[in-house]
Amino acid sequence: MADKVRIASLQQLKAESKKIVMVTAYDYPTGRLADEAGVDVVHVGDSLANILGYGDEIPVTLDDMIHHTAAVRRGVKRALLMADMPFMTYKVSPEEALRNAARLVQQGGAEVVKMEGGCEICPTIRKVAQAGIAVMGHIGVMPQSVHAQSGYKVRGKEADETERLIEDALAIEEAGCFAIVLEVVGWDSARRITEALRVPTIGIGSGAECDGQIMVMVELIGLSFRQQPRYVKRYSEAGDAIRGAVESFAREVRSGAYPDRQHAYLAREKKEE
Fold first, then answer.
1. Domain limits at 255?
2. Which of 61, 142, 205, 251 is the most exposed place for a label (fewest CB within 10 A)?
3. 135 near 115, Cβ under 8 Å?
């Protein structure tokens, strides 16, 4: 097995101009498969809403995140394991944020946590990072603030907004973030932010100039039932394969073709003989 991925590994990749690969997974099978595929970071995101049937990320709780992070933890050996801090678990106070981050690490097995926000959450990032819990930042489109942001619109299209994003990125880097996700940020703005930072940037819908890219597992394999963002590339249609397999099973059960003697339980076979 290749060496365990650490925060220093990601910093080295940026220094060598090598791309960082992140995939969002939600359970033991997808976490294990992502790890075996050789990604650098497996991310348990509050986009868990995808598989819990919610319309957006707001209903996802800390207990949900701990439960699913622990499942992914059992499947991930090499990759760095990161978990999102869900809605309102880190914005009430730095002290509450630290308690909640500690639960994600201690009970969920996360190695690092991720928070959305810019300058306004610097005291929280500093508190958590100084306690020894690594923090990844997240700016641009922030799903937990999607209503306040009036939807999923590209950020950094105008010069003044780009400057604010750069200011936020530099501030949360200084507060202690070891890397920053840029979600749906204009390509040129993402390039400028990446060049301004010492820490790696991870893009999602933000162009190829970022230091790495992240994709949600259920979207890249065709298992998401949400409307797909324009930046999503589906690398397989697992949903169609699963539906087809279940349809075949149902047909064979109804026709009597399954189970046949080849697939009968061994103990039952011996008893009949």
1. 239-273
2. 251
3. yes
Contact 84, 113 (CB under 8 A): yes
Question: Rounded mean pLDDT of 27-43?
Answer: 97
Strands 41-44 and 20-24: parallel
| Cis preceding linkage at 143, omega within 30 | no
- Two tokens, residue 192: 């400028």
118 part of a folded domain:
yes
User: Between the CA of residue 165 and those of 125, 191, 199, 214, 265, what are the distances in Å?
Assistant: 17, 12, 15, 19, 61
Q: Number of C-alpha atoms within 13 angstroms, CB side, residue 180?
A: 36
139 dihedral zone (left: phi>0; alpha: psi -120 to 50; beta): beta
- Number of Cβ within 10 Å of residue 4's Cβ equals 11
Based on the domain organization, do 148 and 245 belong to the same domain? no
Q: How far apart are CA 212 and CA 197, in angstroms?
A: 14
State the Cα torsion 109-112-114-115 to the nearest 10°: 100
Query: Residues 74-104: pLDDT tens digits?
Result: 999 999 999 999 999 999 999 999 999 999 9
Maximum alpha-carbon separation in the chain: 81
Structure tokens at 102: 């500690």
Same domain, 91 and 105: yes
Q: Which residue has the tokens 């200084």?
A: 174
Is 41 a member of any domain? yes
Which entry of 111, 183, 209, 219 is annotated as an active-site residue?
A: 183
pTM of the model: 0.92
In the chain, % of residues over pLDDT 70: 96
Cα 225 to Cα 62: distance, rounded to the nearest angstrom: 23
What CATH number is given to the structural domain containing 219? Answer: 3.20.20.60
Check if 163 is active-site. Answer: no
pLDDT for the residue 266: 61
